Predict the structure.
Amino acid sequence: MFKNFLRFHTFAQIQIKMRIDILTIFPEMFEGPFSHSIIKRAKEKNVVEIFTHNIRDYSTSKHKSVDDYPFGGDAGMVMMIEPIALCIEKLKSERKYDEVIYMSPDGELLDQKLSNKCSLFNNIIILCGHYKGIDERISEHFITKEISIGDYVLSGGELAAAVFCDSIIRLIPGVLNDETSALSDSFQDNLLSPPVYTRPADFRGWKVPEILLSGNEKLIKEWQMEKAIERTKQRRQGLFNSH
Ligand code: ADE
């Protein structure tokens, strides 16, 4: 099913150009993840544009505050509505967005299916939270989707946003050299990938499976499928059962 999805993606959206606006209080955290490897190449190819916006720049308070004590007296701080609202409203006045996403452990769990879907978007806003979270009115009035990258709590949404961006950008046509390499990723058919090997064929007597050296494409494909199924059954029974 996912393979078909990706074929659709490839043929229907050849000219895709994605714009990602990230709202954060730590824009520097994105410098590393976005300046190497696949994301760097995607930016160079002009397939994706990523802008970070420092939420603090939108604070109207004297000390440029972005957080305040929670009503009700709980421990911890809450991210204030105003700077985030001003930033989102400015962006929305400039263009239409497909989604305004909040990275949060309470959100929909990110999986390959969700990444495939999100890779079709043209413009998205991603909000990274900190402290105890964001003022609930931001969710009510601006957020259209919450995404979690796993059932654990990070110190902030930045690392989660970087993970999410990586998972969708690599799926945009033209980003990977060989389009089929996204098709054979783990999870694209709810299957883990088969093991891979490279030279030397024999390292200290540890040999590469004979079949991979045979040159018989059909047998190799069958072997890879068999190994993918075996691995998924052994390691991710849940994924396997969803077939
Ligand atoms: N922010 C904090 N923890 C997170 C998680 N698990 N996923 C997304 N955003 C988060």
User: Anything to note?
Assistant: The beta strands are 18-24, 48-54, 67-68, 78-79, 99-109, 123-128, 145-148, 202-203, 206-207. The chain has a mean pLDDT of 92. Residues 103-105, 148-150, 152-154, 157, 160 surround adenine (CB under 6 Å). The chain has two domains: 16-169, 191-241.
